[in-house]
Write a structure and sequence with these properties.
With 334 residues, the protein is of the alpha/beta class. 39% of the residues lie in helices and 14% in strands. The chain has 13 helices and 13 strands. The strands form 4 sheets. It has a 6-stranded parallel beta sheet with strand order 2-1-3-4-8-12, with helices on both faces. The chain has a 3-stranded antiparallel beta sheet with strand order 6-5-7. The protein starts with a strand and ends in an 8-residue tail after the last helix. It binds NADP nicotinamide-adenine-dinucleotide phosphate. NADP nicotinamide-adenine-dinucleotide phosphate (NAP) binds next to helix 1, helix 4 and strand 4. The site of NADP nicotinamide-adenine-dinucleotide phosphate has 24 residues, from helix 1, helix 4 and strand 4.
Length: 334
């Protein structure tokens, strides 16, 4: 049996759905039923329930976005560092294997090289990177699990959210019985405030960059497969292989679910940070070779995106033809 903490959350819900689909026995635990942030309570609960595995889908991500973590610093540290440390301690006492949701946001940029000489390009919106992207895309590589996070408290600048997640990884790296699952920019076919495809459609202006992305279903499958296959514990980048430019995602959205929508882009980083963001954002490419070597399947990023768009389920209230005639400037999607 599996115990899942934070199952009420965005990613936790995807875990719940997949555990049900696999007919795996699990118990979802919410802080409103059990204050699992308290080590004695968590220990007593797990001693009683005797699970085989624990999933930590709990954490503080900041709403509506990571800017909120800059002001809610105590909450961020409690949710993202102290809680994982508490779980690690309790799981070590019990000899209980577990998985922890981390993020690729602890990196910024990509590695570029031909195998002999490699350098890190931190700014994926820079003209020099765009030149590499256009001329030598094969030389662009992602950060792998052996690379030290370069968007962290130890390697500033970083956002407080990313700093807290990198610090948690550092703390957990001393534990022997944990999977650290690094997801990044989640998306799927279900319209949701956290879904990248939804966000792209609702932003007043879009921040153009290059990133690795994580399809929710593929990622959660990969996390559970690692456990079911009894793959070695440790850190795994869990993103769909490859990377994609925001502009390409927008093109795909326009061709499928929002043909009438006009998308605007921020002119550059200066305009974006002066107007729309308080803290630096991570844009990065991750290498998923380690995950794929375990024979866990992840679809290439464009395939997963195309599939999500083909099966898109909008939450938007359908607008009447008359409404659209009255308010054409709003570009309301039906
Ligand atoms: N969403 C993303 O973009 C993304 C990307 C990569 C990685 N992740 C990681 O995935 C994990 C889950 O993210 P999510 O997007 O599913 O978050 P979420 O929707 O905010 O859900 C997180 C859940 O954690 C629990 N929780 C425990 N301590 C908390 C605290 N101090 N503050 C707030 N919630 C707390 C809450 O459940 P109860 O109160 O019911 O117990 C909450 O529902 C996090 O560790 C996050 O860093 C998320």
């Amino acid at each position: 049996m599996i115990v899942i903490l934070g199952a009420s959350g965005y990613i936790g819900q995807v875990f719940e759905a997949e555990l049900k689909r696999r007919k795996m026995r699990f118990i979802s635990v919410s802080r409103k039923d059990l204050d699992y942030t308290q080590p004695d309570k968590l220990l007593a609960y797990l001693k009683k329930k005797k699970p085989d595995f624990l999933i930590n889908a709990a954490g503080f991500v900041g709403k509506p976005n990571v800017d909120a973590c800059e002001t809610a610093r105590a909450e961020t540290l409690l949710g993202n560092v102290i809680l994982p440390q508490t779980i690690a301690h309790v799981c070590t006492i019990l000899g209980l294997p577990w998985g922890h949701l981390s993020t690729g946001c602890i990196y910024n940029g990509a590695k570029i090289g031909d195998g002999k000489k490699t350098y890190i390009e931190k700014d994926l919106s820079s003209p020099s990177f765009k030149k590499v992207l256009a001329g030598k895309p094969w030389s662009i590589r992602g950060f792998d699990e052996t690379d030290e996070p370069n968007f962290s408290f130890r390697n500033p600048p970083c956002s407080f959210y990313s700093g807290s997640k990198a610090l948690a990884e550092e703390v957990l790296s001393k534990s022997g019985n944990v999977y650290i699952w690094r997801l990044r920019i989640p998306f799927d076919e279900n319209d949701h405030a956290r879904n990248y495809i939804s966000k792209m459609q609702r932003y007043a202006k879009v921040y153009d960059n290059v990133n690795s992305l994580s399809h929710n279903g593929d990622s959660v499958n990969a996390c559970l497969d690692l456990w079911e296959k009894r793959a070695p514990f440790g850190t795994y980048n869990i993103t769909n292989p490859g990377f994609i430019m925001t502009r390409e995602v927008i093109d795909m959205i326009k061709k499928t679910i929002a043909p009438d929508k006009t998308f605007e882009f921020w002119k550059d980083d200066n305009e974006f940070y002066a107007t729309a963001a308080k803290t630096p954002r991570s844009n990065c490419i991750l290498d998923v070779s380690k995950l794929l070597a375990t024979s866990v399947k992840m679809r290439p990023v464009r395939e997963a995106l195309a599939d999500s768009l083909a099966r898109w389920k909008s939450n938007a209230v359908p607008q009447s033809a008359q409404f659209r005639r009255q308010f054409p400037a709003r570009n309301v999607r039906t």
